[in-house]
Design a protein that fits this description.
The chain is α+β, with helices and mostly antiparallel strands. Helix content is 20%, strand content 38%. The strands form 2 sheets. The chain has a 5-stranded mixed beta sheet with strand order 2-9-5-4-3. Strands 1-7-8-6 form a 4-stranded antiparallel beta sheet, covered by helices on one side. A hairpin with a 4-residue loop joins strand 4 and strand 5. The longest helix is centred in the N-terminal third of the chain and has 15 residues.
């Protein structure tokens, strides 16, 4: 299970590569990981958005978007985020791919299928009830 220091490291490593990139397409191979909104709305509202920043709250990744919405991702027990070439074939455990405009793609790999994603107006809809930030 990725713990808080690993989540912080992943955030720090992804930031210089994906902030400023536009989401050109979304591939979902396990639709149940999208918790909010519907899968169709999730895809249509994400496509065309630019990633303006990445933050972390607890073990949640919070991706700022140009629409003032946020994409929230939780890796749960076995999830990982991998930056790949957009032409790279996903392995059998990749559950979602965010295709980006500079020939790259963010693969959400999750063998146990516990990971989750939300697209919401504000972060508090998902992480608002978390306790004090430990770091």
């Amino acid at each position: 299970m990725p713990e808080l220091p690993e989540v912080e490291t992943i955030k720090n490593e992804l930031t210089p590569y994906i902030v400023g990139q536009c989401i050109t397409d979304v591939s979902l191979f396990w639709e149940k990981m999208v918790r909010r909104p519907s899968v169709e709305e999730f895809r249509s509202r994400l496509i065309g958005q630019e990633i303006t920043g990445i933050a972390r709250r607890g073990k949640y990744f919070i991706f700022g978007l140009t629409s003032d919405e946020v994409l929230i991702i939780h890796l749960k027990m076995t999830g990982s985020l991998l930056l790949k070439s957009d032409s790279a074939e996903p392995d059998k455990y990749v559950r979602a791919i965010l295709h980006l405009d500079k020939g790259t793609a963010l693969h959400f790999r999750d063998p146990r299928k516990f990971g989750a994603m939300w697209l919401v107006e504000g972060r508090n809809a998902v992480v608002g009830k978390l306790g004090p930030e430990p770091l």
